[in-house]
Write a structure and sequence with these properties.
With 192 residues, the chain is of the alpha+beta class. It has helices at residues 3-22, 27-34, 38-46, 53-63, 67-71, and strands spanning 86-87, 93-96, 105-111, 124-131, 134-138, 141-145, 150-154, 159-163, 169-176. The strands form two sheets. It has a six-stranded antiparallel β-sheet, with no helix packed on it.
């Protein structure tokens, strides 16, 4: 066995122990959740037993983590977030927050001043203003959105969005394939 593989396998036990302790579980409780004996769990955590898929899969399910989180060392910070900003036109930055082609895509964008140019394409968009003021043109209508305000629209309608003034605007931008629309799942509040 090469040194890298041995090191990887040796790191799984402490990771399993850390997950169990973070959740406040005893070996007995985890044994009941997974069907794996207490002695096997103890040996896995201490490194006296090599992990196998038939042991790791029920443990990943019990801890509600992806199997790769048990097997590989996490990247710095949250292992689910791998932001790679892309510079766009001068002063504008696009940060993809999801990477699922064909499904709703989420971006954080900082938009600098640019001239309006209406476009159309298939899909559906949602814009949420984080900072600054966003100018949104939808066909003949023009709307200015402030922090905390949201717009949603079918991208088949001619549209453009950018800063409402000389300052940059920061937004969350969701884009869905044609036909994907927001579904509100909130009931009336006590004040309604």
């Amino acid at each position: 066995m090469d040194a890298d593989l041995a090191e990887l396998l040796d790191s799984i036990g402490p990771r399993l122990r850390g997950l169990r302790r973070d959740r406040g579980l005893t070996l007995e409780a985890l044994s009941k959740d997974t069907g794996i004996s207490v002695s096997t769990l103890s040996r896995l955590e201490s490194g006296r037993r090599r992990p196998t898929l038939d042991l790791l899969i029920p443990l990943a399910r019990a801890h509600r983590v992806a199997l790769d989180q048990l097997v590989t060392a996490p990247a710095t910070g949250d292992p689910r977030v791998h932001l790679q900003p892309r510079s766009r036109e001068r002063g504008s930055v696009l940060v993809p927050l999801t990477q699922y082609p064909g499904r709703v895509q989420v971006f954080k964008q900082v938009l600098s001043h640019r001239e309006p140019r209406l476009v159309t394409h298939s899909g559906y968009e949602w814009l949420y203003v984080l900072a600054g003021r966003l100018r949104l043109i939808l066909g003949e209508r023009e709307i200015t959105l402030r922090p905390g305000e949201v717009a949603e629209f079918d991208t088949g309608e001619p549209h453009w969005f950018g800063p409402a003034d000389a300052e940059a605007v920061e937004i969350l931008h969701l884009f869905g394939p044609h036909g994907d629309q927001a579904v509100v799942r909130a009931g009336p509040t006590a004040h309604d």
